[in-house]
């Protein structure tokens, strides 16, 4: 354990020497040693739930606008989404069902109704509407709604075929992801952006544990191990465990993290992870020990360095202790000297006082003797 802590200290050293950055972009490491510009994949605490206080304020604002402009369907569609975020899906449906009849090709109305059906478990209806929305506006949600469609298809398979379908199969296969790559590194980055957007959108609606999210995140980890960066892969694996309470599943993911770290050790020779990545780990509250999971051999090497440094530190500590004792003795001697000088000074004062008293008595006796003689 100690050796792993030392490796962790090496990995994190640069963080404490530089300010923590809030930027969402950094340079990561591919497992063949290339340094690549990438976007982070992280979920801060504020992303895990909706700001209900703010939503209630927005709800009242929209209701006032609807009173002022009752024919404005956009306010009503926006209100339906706020209601869904507040957990009031039935109220949202009561708004959207009439709207879809009046505006069957309005993207927001179509997409919101599809989301409402999904939240109510009406998966077939939801899939029809989300597909239609993607056809109407393929650029919505930054072009990531193809993932939403795959999620609904997987949910329907699990519902109709086998309740544990998602535990046995990826929602999106590696082959499907690789078909989206084409040529150029930026295609791989676009896949990451699409996953990132969809995951962040779903998280507040689906608190942990959630098999859809851990399935997607495991796939994202596999994809980045092969086509992306170490940093993106380990974050995706870490988050997949956060959305699972299954010990067997989490053990499998830890095995993947171990393999990933061993590849990182072999190919990222300096183990110099970017400070922005460390910053993101702190914001994400990811267990930092995952960075050294499976690196016992490398950690043992660092442990020998630690022991040498510890010997030096012990000598340094002994010297400091000796210096401290010497200083204490000097201060004690000085205090004793001052005390002696004070006592000597007091003795002189007592002697002078005695002499003065004696002289005074002698004079008085002499005067009394003369007076008697007279």
TrEMBL record:
SUPFAM superfamilies: TPR-like. It comes from Croceimicrobium hydrocarbonivorans. TPR repeats lie at residues 107-140. This is Uncharacterized protein. Residues 1-22 form the signal peptide. InterPro entries: TPR-like_helical_dom_sf (IPR011990), TPR_rpt (IPR019734). Residues 315-346 form a coiled coil. Keywords: Coiled coil, Membrane, Signal, TPR repeat, Transmembrane, Transmembrane helix. The chain crosses the membrane at residues 348-368. It comes from the Bacteria.
